[in-house]
Amino acid sequence: MHNIENVSDDIFWVGVNDRKTQRFENYLPLDKGVSYNSYLILDEKVALIDTVEIGTSENFLEKVEGVLQGRKIDYLIINHMEPDHAGAIKDIIRLYPDVTLVGNVKTFPMLDAFYDCAKEGCENNRLVVKEGDTLELGKHTLTFAMVPMVHWPESMVTYESSTGTLFSNDAFGSFGSLDGGIFDDQLNLSFYEDEMRRYYSNIVGKYGAPTQAAIKKLGGLDIKCIAPCHGPVWRTDISRVLGHYDAWSKMEPEAEGVVIVYGSMYGNTEKMANAIARQLSKEGIIDIKLYDASKTDHSYIISDIWKYQGLIIGSCSHNNAVYPKVQPLLSKLQNYGLKNRYLGIFGNMMWSGGGVKGIQAFADSLRGVEVVGEPVEVKGSPRSEDYTKLEAIATAMADKLKAARK
Ligand SMILES: Cc1cc2nc3c(=O)[nH]c(=O)nc-3n(C[C@H](O)[C@H](O)[C@H](O)COP(=O)(O)O)c2cc1C
């Protein structure tokens, strides 16, 4: 059987790649695709861990049947009810009508809400598990742990103790299809770690406290392999992966650097952004990420904001407010409660302003963000004295970053 991978002797990756869907959750670009990972455990009893998005079901079922070789599935473990994993539940029930659905007390009301269970056959054969419950398959034992709000209320993870495999659901998942390699040691990790951060920051990012609680809970387990629902299966350096989640969920920056993001109609705010970037470079800052908020999808900008300690935001004025292509970024960061960052502010205007005022209001709403330097608002084309003020923001930012060097 092709395109199946052994996670261990009797655990199989039966995931699928999706390179067709343009946007995850219909808003996050999937430039490099995504995988929906599902795992099959063959033992005295057979268990399937999660399914896939409905559009990829045919390919998935072919793999499942290929591994089963005529056997039936006894248990379908539903770690998460989001449709990109629960999408093929109906297909599994249709093919294996005796399968027992395993979920927690919050799983089944969602199943009932998504599906017409009386019609689809998912009304019966339900096993409700709670924290710490175990399910014996033979040689393999599954233990269930609830991880509410990582990133849905019913989210749970399943630990298989004989192999030390944690089926972690969306936690530790990343965007990017699996183009040949399945495991971390078979892949270029710099790409997947970036995509893992983009996934975390945009999807799980608001739920730092529940993620911290989950990390503490799972910390006592002997984890040899993390098998998430998206992206690579991690088996080489588990502590590195756990370390990423620990830092990201605390919103601790990963690296020295500055994200400059601006919105500009006629180029004046852009000129200001360039001047700030140049001065940061003169101050010895190497990682400077300069983004036009109208052009780059915000999910990439947010991922870099998660990575770096410095953030400098600029906006032209638009109807007495922040430019419409900058405002959604501010709203999302506000919703996520951005913290542990230094912030610089600049903007452009022609009559009574609005851009800088809006960014300042954003800064005031966040407790964990420290404004560095004096906000600079320029009318039209920046003059020499304006550049001096913009450079002062860059220098103040660089001073903060240098002071934080260990
Ligand atoms: C639709 C529209 C609304 C604007 N609203 C404001 C405003 O509320 N206050 C203001 O001072 N300037 C306003 N402006 C003027 C621009 O902010 C100003 O020209 C600025 O220099 C543009 O910066 P940019 O070159 O970076 O695009 C508006 C311009 C447009 C086209």
UniProtKB/TrEMBL annotation:
Q: Which InterPro entries does the record associate with it?
A: Flavodoxin/NO_synth, Flavodoxin_CS, Flavoprotein-like_sf, Metallo-B-lactamas, NADH_oxidoreductase_modular, ODP_dom, RibonucZ/Hydroxyglut_hydro, Rubredoxin-O_OxRdtase
- Say which family it is in: In the N-terminal section; belongs to the zinc metallo-hydrolase group 3 family.
Give the source lineage, highest ranks first.
Answer: Bacteria, Fusobacteriati, Fusobacteriota, Fusobacteriia, Fusobacteriales
The species is Psychrilyobacter piezotolerans
Which superkingdom is the protein from? Bacteria
- Give the protein's recorded name: MBL fold metallo-hydrolase
Q: Which cofactor does it need?
A: Fe cation
Its keywords, alphabetically, are:
Electron transport, Iron, Transport
UniProt-listed SMART domains: Lactamase_B
Q: Where is the Flavodoxin-like domain?
A: 258-398
Q: Tell me the CDD domains matching this sequence.
A: flavodiiron_proteins_MBL-fold (cd07709)
The record's section on PROSITE patterns has:
FLAVODOXIN, FLAVODOXIN_LIKE
